[in-house]
Amino acid sequence: MAKTKQAAARSSPRPWPFLALGLWLGSGGTGFRAPAPASVSRVAAAVQQSEAQALFASLCAACHGSVGAGDGPAAAALRPRPASFKDSLFQVGRTDEQLAAAIKGGKPPMPAFAQQLTPVQIRALVTYIRAFGPPRRKP
Ligand code: HEC
Predict the structure, then answer these.
(1) Which residues constitute the domain of residue 26?
(2) To test the ligand 1 pocket, which listed residue (4, 63, 67, 99) has its Cβ within 8 A of the most ligand atoms?
(3) pLDDT digit string (tens) for 39-73?
(4) Is the distance from the beta carbon of residue 112 to the nearest atom of ligand 1 less than 6 Å?
(5) How far is the CA of 130 from the centre of ligand 1 (A)?
(6) CB count in 10 Å sphere of residue 68
(7) How many domains does the chain have?
(8) How far apart, in whole angstroms, are the C-alpha atoms of residue 128 and residue 75?
(9) N or C end of the chain: which has fewer CB within 10 A?
């Protein structure tokens, strides 16, 4: 289950080819009218989310469940059990920094992932975990 940083990098899509394609299209490579630059960063964000989805499925879902409900196959044996990311009290009770710190440093019995994941991957996972929760209202 433990994947190295290199393995994760190899198996997950990188944004650069998409960005390069976007820039090439933007420069009129095909004569095709390019989408506005804003949609290039939207593509990059989408690539990051699909990477986060793949990382979550391979590194986290065994405990946290495939949709973050805290009910992965390994969860029953854990004390404490992982919380459900779908729970609004879980979501409002933690800042993004706290979620990132837990992923980086671990929270027993959860292992630390600082050696396996880059800061960008950890940030993408935080965004991914937020998406399990109820839609957040703007203050
Ligand atoms: C071995 C099982 C296991 C794995 C694998 C695991 N977790 Fe956890 N995780 C837990 C448990 C158990 C908790 C609850 C710990 C507690 O409340 O003390 C937890 C808590 C968390 C929390 C909440 C921390 C908080 O503020 O309470 C986050 C966020 C989290 N995990 C993310 C992840 C991500 C992302 C991954 C994959 C990269 C992952 N976990 C992999 C078991 C696991």
Answers:
(1) 5-132
(2) 63
(3) 888 888 888 899 999 999 999 999 999 999 999 99
(4) no
(5) 14
(6) 23
(7) 1
(8) 20
(9) C
Alpha helices in the chain (DSSP H): 5-11, 16-26, 37-55, 61-64, 88-92, 96-105, 119-132
Q: According to the model, what pLDDT value does residue 83 have?
A: 96
Q: Which residues of 41-64 are buried (b: 16+ CB within 10 A; e: fewer)?
A: eeeeeebbeebbbebbebbbbebb
- pLDDT reported for residue 38: 77
76 Cα–ligand 1 center, Å = 14
- What CATH number is attached to the domain comprising 46? 1.10.760.10
From 41, 72, 77, 76, select the one nearest 56 (Cα to Cα): 72
Residue having the nearest C-alpha atom to atom 29 of ligand 1: 99
- Which pLDDT value is given to residue 102? 98
pLDDT at 75 (0 to 100) = 97
Residues of the chain where predicted confidence (pLDDT) is lower than 50? 1-2, 8-9, 21, 25
What pLDDT is stored for residue 9 in this prediction? 47
